[in-house]
User: What shape does this take?
Amino acid sequence: MPRFLSRIPHLHLTAVTLALVALLGTAGALVWSDDSQAADDKKASEPRPALTVSVVRPASANLAARLPANGNVAAWQEASIGAESNGLRLTDVRVNVGDTVKAGQVLATFASETIAADVAQARANLLEAKASAAESQANAERARTLSQSGALSAQQIQQYTTAAQTGQARVEAAQAMLNAQQLRMKHTTVLAPDSGVISARTATVGAVVGAGTELFRMVRKSRLEWRAEVASSELPRIQLGGGVTVTAASGAQVEGTVRTIAPTVDAQTRNAIVYVDLPAHADIRAGMFARGEFVLGQRNAITVPTSAIVVRDGFSNVFELVGTDHVRMVRVQTGQRTGETVEITSGLKPDASIVARGGAFLNDGDLVRVQPVAK
Assistant: This one.
């Protein structure tokens, strides 16, 4: 033992030892604290994933090839129902706009008292003409029987024969007059020329109208059609009898059928009218504007979930997984939408892995954590 230590009392030696131990412990704690802080700083400096995402691959699907178009809904045929009698007063109007009628149904009636009197007079004139014709015919018969006796000259016999023929002609004239008056009587009742729905009414009770004045307008058979404007270059793709999906302004959709294609093309727009038969629907009315799609067949396409599409600056984009933990924004062209999927026409490879949803919270080059696929 060194000489100076031998001079220090035992108690003092113990205190010195404890001090040395404490000093060493403090130094160790400082060293451990520095190591822990360095580890925390290193961990903090590492980039954190922006989002936990699930990825999908584009799917191959057979989609119906469609041709969009716009046009107006119109009546298949409209019938104009007018007055056929002249100067008569309307006494009854039995239908209104929107009423469905059948062929031969009474729509309105005119006052018939004057015509009834004319019919009675024409009938009386006919009876008088028949009586006169019968007398003339009898005289002609008697004259012919006396022609051999010489009691009557040939001129007198000819006069009786002519009178009989004249009487018969007067009978026929009176019959024609009676028929005309009866036809006028028939025209006092306005009948529906076909079944359909009344689309317009101008008839008013008490009005005195002339012959030919329109009283009603009717959509024949209640049939409507969609008159689509299609570019002339697209006409060869449309087939008669092909299916069409027509969407009204209310969002209602109906399935129509191509009936015919106009034989001419507008010289200004270079468009042709395609006539599409439509079924009856409460939201489809004549005069409405509607858009539609012609079904042209099937085609193969790649689709992605609609939730994978991110629209920025007016363009459609998807986020493609690069490596294992980064994404990049890829601009794509979208096509037909079907349910929860949308067609990708260009900009995306079929074997790419894209973010299925949540792309609105990502930016180009972000670090992500890929969620494992559930088994």
In short: The helical segments are 3-6, 10-45, 113-145, 154-186.
